[in-house]
Amino acid sequence: MSTVELTRFRVLPSRSEELLAARADMLKDFEADRAGFLGARLVQLPDNEWLDIVDWATPADFAASREKGANLPGIARFFAAIDSLVTAEEGVSAP
């Protein structure tokens, strides 16, 4: 079983294209710099909200990623496009 990060956030409509443009570089930075990063899916929701579903090998990998924050340019660009955090949760994938 892997750890799943669920982050729901708001993006102003004027910055949605910026968010999507930054996504590929963010994922490249995660692949290069985050141990245990398994992949991610970004879901657009109603009312300018988005859900980022990120899979981690272990809870420790997820915790280490949080500690690093926006330490690389691609990650920083993606985070900068976010207007506000709605929720952040951690769970375990079902077998």
Overall strand count: 4
Strand order of the largest sheet: 2-3-1-4
Q: What structural class results from the helix and strand content? A: alpha+beta
- Output the CATH class name: Alpha Beta
CATH architecture tag: 2-Layer Sandwich
Write the H/E string, N to C: EHEEHHE
Q: What would the average pLDDT be, to the nearest integer?
A: 97
Fraction in beta strands: 25-35%
Helix content: 25-40%
Characterize the overall form: globular
- Number of discrete helical segments: 3
Radius of gyration: 13 Å
CATH topology type: Alpha-Beta Plaits
Unreliable sequence segments: none
Distance between the termini: 6 Å
Largest sheet: 4 strands, antiparallel
Number of domains: 1
Can you tag this structure with a few keywords?
95 residues; alpha+beta; Alpha-Beta Plaits; 4-stranded antiparallel beta sheet; 3 helices; ABM domain-containing protein; Dimeric_a/b-barrel
Structural topology:
Elements: E1 3-10, H1 16-33, E2 37-44, E3 49-56, H2 59-68, H3 73-80, E4 84-92
Helix pairs in contact: 1-3
InterPro entries: Dimeric_a/b-barrel (IPR011008)
Protein name: ABM domain-containing protein
Organism: Kribbella soli
How do you describe this structure in short?
The chain is of the alpha+beta class and 95 residues long. It has one domain (3-90): Alpha-Beta Plaits. It has three helices and four strands, in the order βαββααβ.
Describe this structure in words.
The protein has helices at residues 16-33, 59-68, 73-80, and strands at residues 3-10, 37-44, 49-56, 84-92. The chain is of the alpha+beta class and 95 residues long. It has a single domain, classed as 2-Layer Sandwich (Alpha-Beta Plaits). The chain has a four-stranded antiparallel β-sheet with strand order 2-3-1-4. β2 and β3 (49-56) form a beta hairpin. The longest helix is centred in the first third of the chain and has 18 residues, at 16-33. It is globular, with a radius of gyration of 13 Å. The N and C termini lie close together (6 Å).
